[in-house]
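4.2 Preliminary Data

To establish feasibility before requesting continued support, the project team ran the inverse folding procedure on a target of 76 residues. The structure was first converted into the token representation described in Section 3, and no sequence information of any kind was made available to the design step. The complete token record follows.
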């Protein structure tokens, strides 16, 4: 499976309006990563953010996170 600029629309559906500048601006900050999502309604770009904080260690998941994403976060 090869996902690139030429094949991404085949996998994720129609193009949503999002500028390359917006993606670059959001990902140049430390702690932000880009993910791709597939749903029956099409695809989307996900911005995953992490923050270092004082505390006991560990992490908290917020939002509507599916089981596979939860497992990936726990494994990391």
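Position-by-position output of the design step:
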């Amino acid at each position: 499976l090869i996902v690139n600029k030429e094949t991404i629309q085949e996998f994720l559906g129609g193009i949503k309006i999002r500028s390359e500048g917006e993606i670059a601006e959001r990902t140049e900050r430390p702690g932000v990563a880009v993910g791709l999502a597939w749903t029956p309604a099409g695809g989307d770009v996900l911005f995953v953010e992490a923050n270092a904080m004082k505390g006991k260690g560990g992490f908290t998941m917020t939002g509507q996170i599916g089981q596979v994403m939860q497992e990936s976060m726990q494994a990391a």
